[in-house]
Amino acid sequence: MDLQQLRYVVEVASTSSFTRAAERCFVTQSALSHQIAALERELGQRLFVRSSRSVRLTEAGEAFVPHARAALLATEQAKEDAAASAGEIVGTLRLGVIPTVTAVDVPSLLVAYRAAHPSARVELRVGNSDALMAAIRAGELDVGLLGLREEVQPSGVASRLLASEGLVAVVPSGHALAESASVRISDLADMTFADFPAGTSGRAQSDAAFDGAHVARDVAFEADSAELILGLVAAGLAVTLLAPGVVARSNADVVTVDLRRGPVRDEYVAWDRTGPRSAARAFLDVLDAVGSAQQEAGPEETSEPASG
Predict the structure, then answer these.
(1) Which of 14, 17, 89, 107 is most exposed, with the fewest beta carbons within 10 Å of its own?
(2) What are the pLDDT digits (tens) for 180-234?
(3) Alpha-carbon dihedral 153, 158, 164, 170, rounded to 10 degrees
(4) Average pLDDT for residues 106-133, to the nearest whole number?
(5) What are the angstrom distances between the C-alpha of 147 and each of 73, 103, 109, 282, 291?
(6) Cα 231 from chain centre
(7) What is the number of helices (H) and of strands (E) in the chain?
(8) Which of the four pLDDT bands, split at 50, 70 and 90, describes residue 305?
(9) Nearest alpha-carbon partner for 142 in 154, 131, 132
């Protein structure tokens, strides 16, 4: 049994495909299959049930994979800690971000991280906050940039608040409310909405606001993409609630209107609370340094990055 075999098993378990696992490991499918078969002979157990349409773990595979993942992670951690003791950050930072992050300028932040640690790699995943927190807890991500409604805090992870932002109403250009200085939740009753899918953290902020105001609403369009939601609004098909920073970086022909006593979104940075990897610790240090530099520069110099 060697680490390469463990890596192959973990990739097949993650992708449910020998073909995709081979692509991710940069080997031929036949070589990957041969190594896994050799490992199964050594163990005396089949790890996967193979068919022409699917691949799934056997009971033995379900028991084996968590230990294989832990062994690979421990190996990487050992390499990274050894390098970190000499002041070098190596390995891969696995970063998850929500698509509507506005508290930080992610590209600029990654530029600063790579400049400080040129030997490190970055893998970026975009998803909703609940999925990102679950991935951090499962050891699949190192750091996540999250957005949650004001009353909710990240669970099962270490975290720090980055910023809070009140949502605004977003309406099409020429809408009856477009010239309003501000509106209330009740003013949006009976309008057709576009929003994130039901049950997601992005949707929870708006749902809680309407429930709290005892106002029903019709969410006719659901999408994972803020840009698509804004496109639906610009087309005159719906209105929505979003953070103003999200709208500011879009080219959609829409109008934002202040929302009185509207929902507030808190943005957090979250990481593994049991012991972050050296790449994650280094990223948090860079995040702190960038934030401190922006505060010292003042709001006028940092207003553009903060919205983008």
Answers:
(1) 107
(2) 999 999 999 989 999 999 988 889 889 999 999 999 999 999 998 899 999 999 9
(3) -70
(4) 92
(5) 28, 9, 18, 22, 18
(6) 22
(7) 11, 13
(8) very low
(9) 132
Distance CA 281, CA 127 (A): 22
Tokens of 120: 């490190």
- Return d(Cα 30, Cα 16) in angstroms, integer: 16
Measured CA to CA, the distance from residue 121 to residue 74 in angstroms comes to 18
Which residues, 6+ apart, have CB-to-CB distance to 140 below 8 Å? 94
Confidence of residue 166 (pLDDT cuts 50, 70, 90): very high
Specify which residues 165 forms β-bridges with.
265
Rounded to the nearest angstrom, the gap between the alpha carbon of residue 191 and the centroid of all alpha carbons in its chain is 30
Q: Which two tokens stand for residue 99?
A: 């698509």
Name the pLDDT band for 78 (thresholds 50, 70, 90).
confident
| Tokens found for residue 220 | 């006719």
User: Where do we find the tokens 């990739």?
Assistant: 11
Give the β-pairing of 92-97 and 143-149: parallel
pLDDT level of residue 38 (50, 70, 90 thresholds)? very high
Residues in the chain: 308
Gap between the Cα atoms of 42 and 108, Å rounded: 48
**Integer Cα distance of 149 and 169 in angstroms:** 16
Quote the CA–CA distance of 157 and 193 in Å, as a whole number.
Answer: 33
Strand partners of residue 262: none
